[in-house]
Amino acid sequence: MGQYTQAIAITVAAVLVFIALIGLGWRNRLRRQSGIAPLPQAPADLPPSRSFEGQYVCTTTADDWLDRIAVHSLGLRTNAGVRVFAAGVLIERDGAAPVFIAADALRGVGRSSGMAGKFVEKDGLLVLTWMLGDKAVDTGFRPRYHQEMKELAELAGALLEPAAEPTGPDAAGEPDFTVTAESAGTTDATPQDTAIENSAPGATPAAPPTDSPAAEKENQ
Question: Which of 91, 112, 161, 182 has its CB surrounded by the most CB atoms within 10 Å?
Fold first, then answer.
C-alpha cells in the first residue's frame, strides 16, 4: 500500500510542477507582451447583423501560430459569435472582451486546418490577419457549422476590396461640360467682336484694318 501511495504522491507532485511551470511561462509571456496596444473599441452605432456562432481559437503573432498573444485574454479559447459590418469584424467572446477588427486594420482573410494546438478538418478555421496597434497578428475562428465558412469568409474578404474609384472628367476635379455658342450667349460672333469682348475694361477698341471697307469710306 505504501508503494502505491508513494507513486501517487510523485505523480501529483509532477503534475503540480508542470502546472506551475505553465503558469510561470504564461506570466512571463504577459510581461513580455505588456507593450501591445489595447483592443480597439467597436463603434456604438453598429447596425443589427447576423451572428456566426462558433469557437474563438486564439490570436497569435502573424505567421507564427505557436506564439500566442496572452494579453487581453487573446490567447484563451472561448465560444464566440462573429458579425461582419462595413466598419469591420466583431468577435463577441464568452467571458472575455469583444475583439473588434476595423476594416482598415484588416490585412488578410484565409483558411487553415490548424492553429496554436487546435487542429480541425481541412480549411475548418477562418484566419484573420490584422494590425493590433503596430503589431501584425492572426486571429482564428471556427464556425459551428462548416457550411457557413464560405459565406463568412466572403463577407470578411469583401472588406479587403478597394472602393471603386470614379472615372471621367469629374474624377480629376475638372468640370464636366462643354462651352458652346449658345451657352456663351452668342451665336455668330465675328473676330472683331471677339477682340472687343476680350479687351480690358475701359480700353479703346482697336481701329479697323486700313484695307477694310469701313476704312476706305472714311478716307474718302
Answer: 91
